[in-house]
Amino acid sequence: MISANDFIPSKYTHSVESGFFQWSAPSNIALVKYWGKKDNQIPANPSVSFTLNNCKTITKLAFAKKENQGSFSFDLLFEGQPKEDFKPKIQKFLERIEIYLPFLKDYHFTIDTENTFPHSSGIASSASGMAALAMNLMSLEKALNPEMTDDYFFQKASLLARLGSGSACRSVKGKVVVWGNQKNIPASSDLFGVEFPHAIHENFTNYQDTILLVDKGEKQVSSTVGHDLMHEHPFAERRFAQAHENLDHLITIFENGDLDAFIKIVESEALTLHAMMMTSMPYFILMNPNTLQIINAIWKFRKETKIPVCFTLDAGANVHVLYPENTSEKVLQFIKDELVGYCQNGQYICDRIGNGAVLI
Ligand code: PMV
């Protein structure tokens, strides 16, 4: 089995003075949710996600060798402007990954980053952002060690992204990514995300995700705090076991294309995630009244039309509406007619399954 130590490099064969790379990395939406973790961003249960296509972070990493190699040195630009409040998170990230990338203090970095989705839309950019930065850092490591295999490159990029933000490790690859050891998913690992290795039915080809922006504000409770509350949680053990079971069910469902069974797992996972929040101590609620209005409207529409549309939720009030490509026209009309009114400023984002990070 691969261990984290396998990603600590011995020595580099090449040297590089300066240059830049640019990668884009997408967001992802979990179907079986990661909620609860051990030390070093090791998940308490396995999760699986659809990689998205349109919601992306694009990051350019410029680097130049420097004299003083005693500390990290970087500038951070967000949409072309210096962004001081993002710096502590990046500083912490660099500290965490230094053991895996011992060259980090040799360079001054300029990190120039932007998102394709609206700023403060309530869509977390930590998954796409950390994945895009990790890809750039791996490109630099590959320049120092060109013999590196593709497997190592992508696994290590995902491992680094995980240390930035857990779910970011699922944003390196597409289209369906598993993170966390699961007995029936060969090569699955707590250390990094892997492409779902089994057959996927054509019903899931180009699956659609329309993200309804219900509340664009800052979350009252961060996911870091939420994960932490799973430590003393009365239902934690059962929940972690359930995630394994649901992932098992999804293996069969992805193979046979049973959309009714898919909907049951996905919606149950979303509500379970929020149920865990509501039953933590302290307890909290991240859904808002419009989230529930949307869920009820989806259930009514599904019952009346038999169209296999369902919802999932992140750690927030926004709703992801998931549906097969061949139902797009009808579902989009339904969204426009009945759901847009529940969105802040009528905003929503049309996305779909995508292929992961791309070098630009
Ligand atoms: O990656 P984090 O620590 O922000 O946690 C994300 C957790 C959920 O989005 C709620 C679930 C998931 O698996 O993505």
UniProtKB/TrEMBL annotation:
What Pfam families is this protein classified in?
A: MDD_C, MVD-like_N
Which UniProt key words apply to this protein? ATP-binding, Lipid biosynthesis, Lipid metabolism, Lyase, Nucleotide-binding
Start and end residues of each Diphosphomevalonate decarboxylase-like N-terminal domain: 25-184
Q: Is the keyword Metal-binding in the record?
A: no
Taxonomically, the superkingdom here is Bacteria
Q: Where is the Mvd1 C-terminal domain?
A: 211-339
Q: Which GO terms describe its biological process?
A: isoprenoid biosynthetic process
* A GO molecular-function annotation: ATP binding
What is the name attached to this protein's record? Diphosphomevalonate decarboxylase
User: What species does this protein belong to?
Assistant: Flavobacterium xanthum
